[in-house]
Write the structure tokens for this entry.
Amino acid sequence: MKSALPKVMHAVAGRPMVSHVLSTVASLDPDRVVVVIGDEMAAVAKAVAPHQTAIQNPRLGTAHAVMAARPHLDDFDGDVLVVYGDTPLVSADTLSRMLAARQKAPEPAVVVLGFRPDNPGAYGRLVLGSDGGLEAIVEAKDATAEQLAINLCNSGVMAIDGRWAFKLLDRVGNDNAKGEYYLTDIIGLARDEGLPCRVVEGDEREFIGVNSRADLARVEAIVQDRLRDKAMAGGATLIDPQTVYFSHDTRLGRDVVVGPNVVFGPDVEIGDDVEIRSFCHFEGARVESGAIIGPFARLRPGARIAGDAHIGNFCEIKNASVEQGAKVNHLTYIGDARIGAKANIGAGTITCNYDGFFKSHTDVGAGAFIGSNTCLVAPVKIGDGAIIGASSAIARDVPADTLAVTRGPHVTREGWARRFRERRSAEKDAAKKGEKG
């Protein structure tokens, strides 16, 4: 990945790849989860907590990685499911079919997840016997011409009988060019013991491993298509689906309409009948039924928009509640604030919530009217029904139903503009004559 960030921590749809895998595994209700990581991967250990971690050091292959988990599994006789943190698309349904196959008579010692790619290329081939059982996994570089013609390939995912897992792993050797211990070797070892092995097939797209930024983009595109389909199947209208981007946890209500070029970051919930106009960005926000958002609006973490409220173009809301029917329609920043029901916030208004050291709160009462280009200097409270004159800087509380204005006096000088233009024009003409002289 050419990154300081561990590979499995790179995000897909707003969360690390390894978290996608753990979420899928959690849906199977496992008795134990052990995450095998390399040394100096504290970020991964933190991300996967509270699951147990095992350190593989040095890193000597896939069988060696599974052996690193042995202290957590040595007394375990259930099914040991081996999945990979850089393969986030594998589905719970596919894994469930593997586990069902593991339990089905004659209870194979190992079930391998296979797939049939359009171009088998360098994938290991799964060699089946006449009874459909798995006889061997042959790496492409070691395969015969006949074996290379096989299009059933190894994904690397396995379900292993826990009664046999470490007995087989103990016998895996490293007599190969890399001096590593390969998990695929347990198929041959199991067959030597007379133990059956089976294959369950899945969709090729489930097994895309991420080893580059290009792979990451490919996986992101697949996930986004899935999330778009899910949103539309759930009753949302996406005007231009390919331009809308979701997080893994985005929640949209029914009859939501989403315009083009909208981005949903993590932890966003949109209620029913919300209209989201184009070029909006959401993160950590809640929007209730009937609200209208955008275009070009940004809702940051802690934004809470009540029903029938309007957030308009080039408005930013952060850690603030905008209550029922309130309007924040133009060129406005609302941070660390409450905007009361049916209040109207004029264009260019900002809450001055940060003094360089602390954040302070602004409270705007129900039905208040804030004139355009107003600065509300927190902490400050504007009472219900109060009116703030345009271009005011309000740094003191304003009682309910009060007018507050903090402008300089209006000064008129008749003829001043004409005299100014005449004087400056004459000065410009004189300067040009001087340049020619």
User: Anything to note?
Assistant: The first strand starts at residue 11 and ends at 12. Residues 213-233 form the longest helix (21 residues). The chain has a mean pLDDT of 96.
